[in-house]
Specification:
The chain is of the alpha+beta class and 252 residues long. The chain is 19% helix and 46% strand. Strands 7, 8, 11, 12 and 13 form a 5-stranded antiparallel beta sheet that branches. The chain has a 4-stranded antiparallel beta sheet with strand order 1-2-3-4.
């Protein structure tokens, strides 16, 4: 029997697409859904959103029904299916955040200006589903490489970073609601006044180097999202970075 390359490729593509579907969708069996009015339908869930569920029969005919028109056990089934589907597609939660600087202080000594401040990371977890969710864990981790003044002919061994890891257990989040979690990282920098240099001859600021905050979320033990939040930088360090990375102008 002759099978065309096009048909063979189509079959191969269908298998690839099937392999990329969420496991919950692949394993879903036909189910007899009972309606409160006494009717029933033997079908699978095609989709569910905005209080409605689309059921698909084996002949590919679909029926759109209000979820609350189903029996209580079928409503629970739709809820579990919807949560699993959103989790598999990364749509169960929304992760966002921002970083900012607080408590910036300045101390001057002869030739030196010492700055201290706090980098505040704020990470927000939003329940993007229409259901109340529980069994959630948020892990936040970040680090900072301490700045140090290098003396002439001193061996510059790497200074280990200061790291922090925090786990938050979230008992529950209501539909559409969000929770914000805050981490604070104290930092400092020393800047030379004009005309001064370090013992090694340089004049760049010596500053702590904070790393981005890494956020990871799990729902009932399953990965539910990740997020990376860059640290906020004081304006004087931004200006110093621009000056150090600016191309040198050719002398006329």
């Amino acid at each position: 029997m002759f099978i065309s390359y096009a048909r063979a490729f189509t079959a191969f593509l269908a298998l690839c697409l099937l392999g990329s579907l969420p496991a919950r969708a692949q394993e879903q069996q036909l189910r007899t859904f009972e309606l409160k009015d006494g009717h029933s339908i033997n079908a699978r869930i095609h989709s569910a959103s905005d209080g409605q569920v689309v059921l698909e029969r084996t002949d590919k005919l679909t029926f759109t029904l209000p979820i609350d028109a189903l029996s209580l056990s079928d409503q629970d089934y739709v809820r579990e299916w919807s949560i699993a589907d959103k989790l598999a597609n990364g749509k169960l939660f929304k992760l966002s955040g921002e970083s900012k600087i607080t408590d910036l202080k300045t101390q001057r000594e002869e030739g030196l200006i010492t700055y201290t401040w706090t980098c505040v990371y704020e990470c927000k977890v939003e329940n993007a589903s229409p259901y109340e969710l529980a069994g959630i864990k948020l892990n936040l981790s970040y680090a900072s490489n301490p700045g140090r003044i290098v003396q002439p002919r001193e061996e510059t061994a790497a200074t280990p970073p200061v790291s922090q890891r925090t786990e938050y257990r979230i008992t529950q989040i209501e539909p559409g609601k969000s929770l914000t979690f805050t981490e604070k990282l104290p930092l400092s920098a020393i800047v030379l006044e004009d005309g001064w240099t370090w013992p090694d001859g340089g004049d760049k600021p010596v500053a702590d180097q904070p790393q981005p905050l890494q956020a990871s979320l799990t729902f009932q033990g399953q990965p539910a999202g990740t997020f990376i939040l860059d640290p906020a930088m004081p304006e004087f360090l931004k200006a110093a970075d621009k000056a150090s990375t600016a191309p040198a102008q050719e002398q006329q």
